[in-house]
Write a sequence for this structure.
């Protein structure tokens, strides 16, 4: 056990790990070479026990037209093909009306769980008084949020009878303007918890009130955004491959139906949406775990986990829709602290949180559209394997000439690590012979 | 619209964006200062349209004891407190038996959807022949995987009657040894699709067979890992704050029950698990969207989205369990290509995929345990606001002396951006007066 690790300097932490786990000198060198010469102190503050930085590719998908405004969308993602797929869909749809998006609601919620012998009816009768006392108790925190257009939106009491007869939840809904609002909501709730206890005990009642916990929820079914793509079926020809646009549209429709009704398929269908969404979430310094949890729980709200998109094929018009909850911020948290998150917001024209919800939804829709279009025509492996080949060649230290030769050869041969190695070994032997 | 963007050099891409969106010169400078002097070409290959690198803090949570082996776990996460919470739990549990983990199963699955007028019964009768033909058709791909201990595990035919009467799914299960296996599974499935069509049409039958799509599923309920923490209730004293260890254990148990029965709570409960899991997934070059989709869909498998953890309090023993699906790899993809992912695997002692599943599960469990322990005692804001204060002070360019003064002052005052600004302004005015 390394004692006092968290108190060590960064240098000492690295030394301690290298020595305890017998790591080669390259360990230290790789970590050092990924430090930022000027900003490392800043990056070290974002988490604890930092010893270096993990690089994710910072990309741009240009040409997105969302509600008639053009965006170059910053995307941070380590998976190949995602940015290319988003860019391709952006280009196509920019010529067909673009992405039409709309924020349907922006309410988030927090939960104050408490246990008491008061009955549901008694508590319900007291709700107007409780509401007003709780609002008052956080006035110092909410007044600033109110200036920015947010605040407390409402209260709802529920009986948590499945846990036990004495447990209740006060659901408090919030609007948090351009911040994601986690700190604001949690601070309000913890303060409200104290107030709730004193409010009830001040009723000259001896029954105790115990706060179980006070915390925001990442389930945000009332912080919803919608995205719509629509064009004449005939226009889909650039995507239809060997099929007619009509056949392509029918195959696409069946793919969406499969993702509605088959759980295993729905999960991967939605994963494709999140490839695009998370790339924007990361690029703007938002919390992708929060977004992921909220989105997938929303996908299961009917009791069966299902696709987040839907399709209408009518009168030779293809209409594809997406609806998902996205609680994002463009101020607070890391959004303006992280140099590249700040830069992303600058590139997007300093959007409001609502605008960012729409941009992220459009990126998700773009990726899902491209993925599905590939799946129902040539399959996704063709594009993927091209990327895969590049990665294998990199591992094998291929030079530029070898790259080109391999790309030609594998355009009609199956890519695998061993096949590429055999090909490259043969090429290198031939080259040695030529040089003799 | 920027024409030909993807063909531009990195330099040209940056110039084109700066000029089109009228961005300040700092845009170019920030991007450039985040390039890696030696490895930028490598990083550029991980995604398309890259213009720089997005830094995430690379941290280590030391002192994890998992099945009696000690690990320093690399974590990549932009959210403050997560690494500290994981480290704290690791230290505590290392003195109480450590994390006991077990891989319950390692099967992944892929889906071959097809449409035909053949009936379910006819197809079922043909299944032995289909299986053997399909296995043969991918022999060239599977033989290497078999050498590594993986391969095709089985076939299952389902009727997708909710989509339409003619649609079927051939679920193929795979074991993929130490790779996550996405490319392997997708390549097999696409090849199997071609074979299925020729197999059925060779039966001298005129009924057409159409492949709808062939792709892996990220729903992996048969790639499961379990984690158990257990200790005498009395030992929980370091976490119990103002409560007795017995009260703390009861409060913790209620928190777990709430996450079992209250949807909004379950989502955030599981999000806390994923904070730890994803930090390891990212640090090792795995795909967090795939993991997230699979985990949250698994959490909704009963028809109600619920907590992934469970608790038993009996005979004064506290036992806390976690079960979740995790399809991870330690070879293939970015795992050995990304310099820091490779380094993470080195730090972990070059684990197998199964070992990595257990490490990620332990990290998730550690974070959830710490979060819940804080929630049922002092609340999470105390720790969070300390971090929040640091972030605000950074934005306001506080110096070391100002940091210290602010930390003292805000130890018993509420933290908000405006409160910190007012405090700092006052301090700076005082300092000016002193200097006069």
């Amino acid at each position: 056990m390394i004692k006092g690790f968290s108190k060590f300097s960064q240098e000492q932490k690295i030394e301690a790990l290298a020595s305890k786990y017998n790591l080669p000198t390259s360990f230290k060198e790789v970590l050092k070479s990924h430090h930022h010469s000027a900003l490392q102190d800043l990056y070290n503050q974002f988490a604890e026990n930092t010893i270096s930085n993990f690089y994710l590719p910072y990309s741009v998908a240009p040409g997105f037209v969302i509600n008639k405004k053009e965006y170059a969308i910053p995307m941070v993602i380590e998976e190949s093909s995602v940015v290319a797929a988003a860019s391709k869909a952006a280009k196509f749809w920019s010529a067909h009306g673009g992405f039409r998006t709309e924020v349907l609601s922006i309410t988030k919620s927090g939960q104050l769980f408490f246990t008491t012998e008061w009955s549901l009816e008694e508590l319900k009768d007291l709700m107007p008084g409780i509401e007003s006392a709780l609002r008052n108790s956080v006035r110092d925190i909410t007044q600033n949020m109110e200036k920015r257009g947010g605040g407390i939106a409402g209260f709802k009491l529920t009986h948590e009878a499945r846990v036990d007869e004495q447990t209740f939840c006060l659901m408090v809904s919030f609007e948090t303007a351009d911040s994601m609002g986690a700190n604001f909501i949690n601070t309000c709730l913890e303060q409200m918890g104290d107030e709730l206890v004193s409010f009830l005990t001040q009723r000259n009642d001896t029954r105790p009130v115990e706060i179980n916990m006070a915390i925001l929820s990442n389930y945000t079914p009332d912080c919803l955004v919608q995205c719509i793509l629509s064009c004449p079926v005939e226009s889909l020809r650039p995507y239809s491959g060997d099929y007619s646009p009509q056949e392509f549209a029918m195959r696409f429709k069946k793919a969406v139906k499969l993702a509605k009704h088959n759980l295993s398929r729905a999960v991967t269908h939605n994963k494709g949406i999140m490839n695009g969404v998370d790339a924007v979430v990361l690029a703007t310094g938002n919390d992708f775990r929060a977004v992921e949890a909220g989105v997938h729980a929303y996908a299961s709200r009917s009791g069966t986990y299902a696709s987040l998109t839907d399709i209408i094929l009518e009168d030779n018009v293809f209409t594809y829709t997406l609806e998902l909850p996205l609680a994002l911020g463009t101020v607070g948290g890391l959004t303006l602290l992280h140099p590249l998150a700040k830069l992303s917001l600058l590139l997007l024209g300093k959007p409001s949180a609502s605008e960012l919800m729409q941009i992220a939804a459009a990126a998700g829709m773009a990726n899902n559209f491209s993925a599905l279009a590939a799946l129902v025509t040539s399959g996704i492996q063709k594009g993927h394997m091209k990327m895969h080949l590049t990665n294998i060649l990199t591992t094998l230290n291929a030079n530029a000439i070898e790259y080109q030769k391999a790309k030609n050869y594998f355009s009609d041969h199956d890519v695998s690590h061993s096949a590429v190695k055999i090909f490259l070994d043969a090429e290198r032997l031939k080259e040695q012979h030529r040089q003799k």
